[in-house]
C-alpha cells in the first residue's frame, strides 16, 4: 500500500510513498478519503518524504484533498517534499503550501534528528532519534488560506509559456 | 541532422503502462549519461504526455499509444508520443495552464505546462477524431562540456 495513514488527536497524516502518477492517484485518493470521511480530522497532513516520482496527477491529488478539507472545515498541509519533487510543486504554486525542511532527503544524523518521535521508521532497523537537531531547522510554515488556483495567479508560480527555451532552468531549492 | 539512435514502443492505453513508458524512455536515454535532473524532467514530461493519451485520447476505450525517442549527434533528444484517439478541438485552449475538461476536480490541468517547462521545445498536433501527436525536444549536455560536473549522476552527490 503506497500510503500509510496515522492519526494523532485531530490530525490525520498520510505518508505517501513510491511514484505518484495518474495510475497511482486513484488508490491514494480512495484510501485517504475513506479515512478522512470516517475521522473528519481538523488537519490533513500529506507527507511526501518517501515519494520517488510525481507528475501533475500528484498536484491534482493535493488539490482534490484541499477541497475535501475545505468541505470538512479543516486544514491541509504538505510536508517532507524531497528536492526532486519540488520542481513540479513549484510549477503549480503548491510549494507555497509546503513546510519546507532543510534536512537532506537521505538519512543523516541531522536528517534523522528532525524526524518526529512518533512516526514511521524510515530506515529499516535504524533507531529513531528524538534528539534535537544540531543546528536550527529552517522551516517555512504556511497555513492554507488561499485556494491553490489563486496561488498560481497571485504568486506568479508558472513560468511564461515559451516553446523556444534559451534561458537556463531555474535551480531547485 | 539524422538520429544516431532511436526507439519505438507501442502499448495499449492502460494506466499501468504510464510507469513503463517513463522507465523505457529513461532507460533508452541512459546511454547519454544524463544528469539526475535531466532524466527526472524527461520522465515527468513523458508521464504527462502518456497520461493525456489515456485520459483524453482514449477516454472511453483502450487504444494504442506510440512512444518514440531519438538521439541526435549533438545530444538533442526528440520524444514523440501519439495516439489515434479523440483529438483536441482547441489546442491553444488545451495548453492553457489549469485548463482541464475534467469535472471531478482531481486533475490539475497542468500536463502541457509541465511538458513545456521540463523540456526545451514542445509541439502539439491534433485533429478531431484522428488523434494527437506531442513532440518534445531536450538538449542533454554530454559528458565533457557540462559546466556542472557535480550534478553528474555518478558523482555521488545525493
Describe the structure.
The complex is a heterodimer of chains A (173) and B (158). Chain A has one domain: Transcription Regulator spoIIAA (2-Layer Sandwich), CATH 3.30.750.24. Chain A is 33% helix and 23% strand. Chain A has 5 helices and 6 strands. In chain A, α1 packs parallel to α2 (56-72). The two termini of chain A are 30 Å apart. In chain A, 32% of the residues are buried. Chain B has one domain: Heat Shock Protein 90, CATH 3.30.565. Chain B is 30% helix and 27% strand. Chain B has a 5-stranded antiparallel beta sheet with strand order 1-2-3-5-4, with helices on one face. The A-B interface holds A 19, 21-23, 25, 29, 53-57, 59-61, 63-64, 67, 84, 87-88, 91-92, 105-106, 149, 152, 158-159, 161-165, 169, 172 and B 15-16, 18-19, 22, 36-37, 40-41, 43-44, 47-48, 51, 54-55, 95, 97-98, 104-111, 113-114, 116-118, 120-123, 158.
Q: Largest sheet of chain B, if any?
A: 5 strands, antiparallel
Number of helices of chain A: 5
Gyration radius of chain B, in Å: 16 Å
**CATH class division of chain B:** Alpha Beta
How big a fraction of the residues of chain A is strand? 15-25%
CATH class of chain A reads: Alpha Beta
The greatest interface between two protein chains, and residues involved on each side, is: A-B, 35 and 37 residues
Catalogue the unreliable spans of chain A.
Answer: 100-146, 148-173
CATH topology type of chain B: Heat Shock Protein 90
Please give the number of β-strands of chain B.
5
- List the domain count of chain A as a whole number: 1
Q: Write out the strand line-up for the largest beta sheet of chain A, numbering strands in chain order.
A: 1-2-3-4-5-6
Instruction: Report the end-to-end length of chain A measured between terminal Cα atoms.
Output: 30 Å
Structural shape of chain A: globular
Average pLDDT rating of chain B = 90
The amount of helix of chain A comes to: 25-40%
CATH evolutionary superfamily of chain B: Histidine kinase-like ATPase, C-terminal domain
Amino acid at each position: 500500500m503506497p500510503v500509510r495513514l496515522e492519526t494523532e488527536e485531530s490530525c490525520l497524516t498520510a505518508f505517501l510513498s513510491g511514484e505518484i502518477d495518474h495510475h497511482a492517484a486513484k488508490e491514494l485518493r480512495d484510501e485517504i478519503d475513506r479515512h478522512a470521511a470516517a475521522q473528519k480530522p481538523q488537519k490533513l497532513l500529506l507527507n511526501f518524504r518517501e515519494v520517488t516520482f510525481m507528475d501533475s496527477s500528484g498536484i491534482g491529488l493535493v488539490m482534490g484533498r484541499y477541497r475535501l478539507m475545505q468541505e470538512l472545515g479543516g486544514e491541509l498541509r504538505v510536508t517532507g517534499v524531497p528536492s526532486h519533487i519540488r520542481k513540479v510543486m513549484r510549477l503549480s504554486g503548491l510549494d507555497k503550501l509546503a513546510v519546507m525542511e532543510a534536512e537532506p532527503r537521505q538519512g543523516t544524523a541531522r536528517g534523522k534528528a528532525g524526524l518526529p518521535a512518533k512516526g514511521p521508521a524510515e530506515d529499516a532497523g535504524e533507531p529513531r532519534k528524538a534528539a534535537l537537531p544540531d543546528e536550527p531547522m529552517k522551516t517555512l510554515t504556511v497555513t492554507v488560506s488561499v485556494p491553490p488556483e489563486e496561488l498560481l495567479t497571485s504568486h506568479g508560480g508558472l513560468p511564461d509559456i515559451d516553446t523556444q527555451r534559451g534561458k537556463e532552468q531555474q535551480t531547485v531549492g | 541532422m539524422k538520429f544516431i539512435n532511436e526507439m519505438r514502443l507501442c502499448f495499449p492505453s492502460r494506466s499501468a503502462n504510464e510507469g513503463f513508458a517513463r522507465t523505457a524512455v529513461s532507460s533508452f536515454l541512459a546511454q547519454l549519461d544524463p544528469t539526475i535532473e535531466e532524466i527526472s524532467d524527461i520522465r515527468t514530461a513523458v508521464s504527462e504526455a502518456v497520461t493525456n493519451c489515456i485520459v483524453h485520447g482514449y477516454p472511453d476505450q483502450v487504444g494504442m499509444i506510440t512512444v518514440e525517442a531519438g538521439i541526435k549527434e549533438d545530444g538533442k533528444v526528440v520524444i514523440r508520443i501519439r495516439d489515434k484517439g479523440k483529438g483536441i478541438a482547441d489546442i491553444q485552449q488545451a495548453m492553457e495552464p489549469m485548463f482541464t475538461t475534467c469535472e471531478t476536480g482531481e486533475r490539475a490541468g497542468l500536463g502541457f505546462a509541465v511538458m513545456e517547462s521540463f523540456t526545451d521545445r514542445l509541439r502539439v498536433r491534433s485533429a478531431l477524431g484522428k488523434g494527437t501527436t506531442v513532440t518534445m525536444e531536450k538538449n542533454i549536455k554530454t559528458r565533457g562540456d557540462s559546466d556542472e560536473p557535480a550534478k553528474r549522476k555518478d558523482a555521488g552527490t545525493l
